[in-house]
Every structure is written in C-alpha cells, then in structure tokens.
Please model this.
Amino acid sequence: QVQLVESGGGLVQPGGSLNLSCVASERARIMGWYRQGPGKQRELVARIVSSGSTDYVDSVRGRFTISRNNAKNTVFLQMNSLKFEDTAVYYCNFGGWGGSNYWGQGTQVTVSS
Model:
C-alpha cells in the first residue's frame, strides 16, 4: 500500500502562486497532478515520468511546472499566474513500476479576488 501526503493548497488572488507537494512512501514510475473544479470532471493537469519527461494540459502550459525529487519520492506542482478557472481540488497520482496506481486525498486550491 503506497501512502501519499499532499500539501500546499490554499486561497490566493488571481495572478498569485502556489506550490503543491506530494510525498510518496516509495519510488514511482510516473507521478502526476489531476484536478476537479466545481461541477467539472477530473482532468489531468501535469505528469512526470522517472526520466524527467513531462506533459501538461494546454490550459496550464507555461504557467505551471511539475518536477520531482526521486531521492525523496516527492512530486511538486509550481503554479504561477493563477486564474479563477484554476480553482479546484488537486489530487496527486502515483503510478508504480508494476502498474500500481494510487491517489492522494486532494488539496483545495481557490483563486478568488
């Protein structure tokens, strides 16, 4: 059983920044961030494989940066230039080397003036 601990969410004004962190109990092949806004489906925001290659949803590309510290089994999501539409619960996702998949508990990000 993989444990995931998320942190870093909060309330920010438009244009502000937040950095999300997710610490896993073991090394992942892929780690990613998903989000679910009010009345919306959960969507992939960004993901990063063990080699460091990354993918982003178009709406955050250029504003968000995903990174990982493999020694600490940790993935980060640096969110800059935040917009109202970024408001959502953000979930960390863990993909293991044997095909396992786990979810964090979610952390709330609210962008409001």
In short: The mean pLDDT is 96. The two ends are 40 Å apart (CA to CA). The chain has no helices and eleven strands. The first strand starts at residue 4 and ends at 7.
